[in-house]
Amino acid sequence: MIRYLIVGLLVAGWISETVAIESNGHSGYELAAKKWLKDEFTLSTLTSEQQMKEMRWFTSAAAPFRGMTIRVVSERIDTHTYESNVLTRAFSEITGINVVHELTGEDDVVKKIQTQIQTGVNLYDAYINDSDLIGYHYRSGETVVLSDYMVQEGKDVTLPTLDIDDFIGISFTEGPDGRLYQLPDQQFANLYWYRHDWFSRPDLQAKFKQLYGYELGVPRNWSAYEDIAEFFTVHIKEIDGERVWGHMDYAKTDPSLGWRMSDAWLSMAGAGDKGLPNGYPVDEWGIRVIGCQPVGASVKRGGALDGPAAVYAVTKFTEWLDKYAPPEAKNLNFTEAGTWVAKGNIAQQIFWYTGFTTSLTKPGLSVVNDDGTPKWRMAPSPQGAYWEPGMKLGYQDAGSWTLLKNTPAKRRDAAWLYAQFVVSKTVSLKKTLVGLTPIRASDIESSVMTERAPYLGGLVEFYRSKGRNVWTPTGTNVPDYARLSNYWWQFVSLAVEGKKTVEAAMHEMAEAIDDEMKQIAEDSDLLCKPILNEVEPEDVWLKREGAPKAKRDEQPKGQTSSYEEAIRAWQ
Amino acid sequence: MLGNRDRFKGLVVLLCWGLLAVSVSIHAKPLNVVTFIEKPLIYQKGGEPVGVVVDVVKEIFRQANIEYNLRLMPPKRALFTTAEADGYCVFPIERSQEREALFKWVSPIVISRHGLFSAPGKPISIKTLEDAKPYKLGSYLGSGVGEYLENLGFNVEYATRNELSARKLLKSRVDLWVSDIKSAKYLINSERLPITEPEIVFFTTIRAMACNLNVDPSIVKQLQKTVTQMYRNGSAEKIYGSLN
């Protein structure tokens, strides 16, 4: 019913926007495919003949949908810009289906998918939505279960050469029921980033050893990271006449501040339990589950969101921001900070989104050598004092195609064709080279990527290692990401802005998330809905095995590795 | 890039003298709700705002049992007033990540799709939004979509109201007019403008009621709950249906 609500405001627009397809016979689409293969998709793990066969399938499968204009939305990163500007055009010419691929902030994507679910209004025909929402997708019953769809109603529009097993992040998009809810479109990880050229300088190495008593190298723990941050910001100050900084981050009061925390700080600190892809029973958000039912985020209910490890994480975040980052960092958001290290005055960043790799490899940048190789490297992020072997090592985003059940079937089917086109083997290697957010094992293992590896600072080495399996997205303990993710930036910003102590902000956030989970249970029909634990004294929980963990020595001696040793950890 | 928030604050300083009269205490009632003319969604009759979106908002307040005063302001001023004055809310503005932390939100009030319109006799073929990069685009002050395009590096020129951009298009002062397609169609029909279909409908926005950060959270929560219920039970649909 509700989908008719705003249709009155929209339908005229939809009709008028439907671009008339010129008289384009089957051979016209084939010619278009040939042109795109010759001009754009020149690098592929498929042979030219296999590519052409794949494109012919798209042309044929698209026949019932020609002339339609479908709408999809994704966040704003290089990969999606390529899709929006180039791949929509290719898809349209090869299939006759027009696509408006909108780019917007990640929080907007979350809000839009939430709005379509809540109201039933068909805002978009498909979403590229982080697999962080998997906990909601499998609980809500609102999302098309792709593994069912592909063999049932979507059988005729499912690419025979899709090769699901080739997607490296497919496990992130499966529910606890083993069914596939989303299809990865792009992936990027949070890795340590540093100036390999500076770290290799004998004068800086000697000075660091003199001051701190160990080698300047890739930090293995937060103490070493802190020492290196202090070393560059306080002791070195200038390199080649330029002010340099030992740390970079972002902290603008903005939704992206929340992801900074929920993506990685708590898990790197060691707040959750052991287990892959996420800690169990307490995950990296600090939410405890019994079976699949969330039972609390606060320590008093068995969670770890306001435990010593979480407080340690946010304390270090704010402290390092104040002491060692450039003053601008506090006013930057995810997008603005992403390419900041390309300016050439940052020594290291505890975790940096590899989705910005393309921006750091451009010739002429001060962080790129004359031969095109980078002056920087990426390596495993250092672990906090509460981290233990067996826990996830870092965060990986898996922006993934998501279809909603309340999208009209024909529009959903047409959108599914576009989704498969942009991840097809014909397209994916070129897309990987443009955006450097690989999704297919076949692309990663290709000779093309071997040739590119020296220019990508460790990206290929990471994705060819087992490391790619232990850098994981937010897991299924989070029952409703859209409703809960707001709390992160709203409460952490209070600590960043000095309005509350870290302890107070985290306690209040844990309390608020508990309350919201209780509310979610009361006003939704989710499967495995939250049932909160009764309150117990915090000490009781802190004395038990696993998360939440009691306070421990947070300043062990700093430890570093050589780059070669560090990346061996991925093997 | 210069953040929206910085530009926003700079302009707020310029306008602060105009805001002296709207100083309201945090807990004052009724809530001051402001809106702006955007035909056919919102227009003026007898000095009062009317239209389907106004009807929906009135129904939200009625069902939520919250007192309010409603009045019209120019869009940019309505936005600044709400950002700076306690006890104020404004609708319908585009909700976006850039604006998220500046307000408390009640959404959706209405969903809009936005298009690019070319001038008669001067069609500009737009297959993807990127094709519009070389051109001068006309939007209006306070438009979230205008800000969106500007942040993506587009050349955006602002007028004080949407219809003025349409006129600028006809006088070749901008190459493409950026508008909510429903508003554009209404303007084209009512003012008999020789503008045809949009070259592309490029963006969808959730338009919301934004409230000052000091508005009582329980009021915002109650309004949000009511909006969601209205969408679910069809009462919002019934009102929007009257538009046709």
UniProtKB/TrEMBL annotation, chain A:
Give the location in the cell.
Answer: Periplasm
UniProt keyword Cell membrane present: yes
Q: Has keyword Signal?
A: yes
User: Record's InterPro entries?
Assistant: ABC_tp_sb, Bact_solute-bd_prot1, SBP
Q: Where is the composition biased (Basic and acidic residues)?
A: 542-556
Q: Which UniProt keywords apply?
A: Cell membrane, Lipoprotein, Membrane, Palmitate, Signal
Pfam families in alphabetical order: SBP_bac_1
Q: Where is this region: Disordered?
A: 542-571
What broad class describes the main subcellular location of this protein? periplasm
The cross-references to SUPFAM superfamilies, in alphabetical order and at most eight, read: Periplasmic binding protein-like II (SSF53850)
Record-stated family: Belongs to the bacterial solute-binding protein 1 family.
Protein name per its UniProtKB record: ABC transporter substrate-binding protein
Q: Which organism is it from?
A: Alkalimarinus alittae
UniProtKB/TrEMBL annotation, chain B:
Tell me where the signal peptide lies: none
Q: Which residues form the Solute-binding protein family 3/N-terminal domain?
A: 39-240
Sections of the chain in a coiled coil = none
What the entry lists under InterPro entries is as follows: Solute-binding_3/MltF_N
One Pfam family per UniProt: SBP_bac_3
The protein's matches in SUPFAM superfamilies, at most eight in alphabetical order, are given as: Periplasmic binding protein-like II (SSF53850)
Name recorded for this polypeptide: ABC transporter substrate-binding protein
Q: Which organism is it from?
A: Alkalimarinus alittae
Q: What is the lineage of its organism?
A: Bacteria, Pseudomonadati, Pseudomonadota, Gammaproteobacteria, Alteromonadales
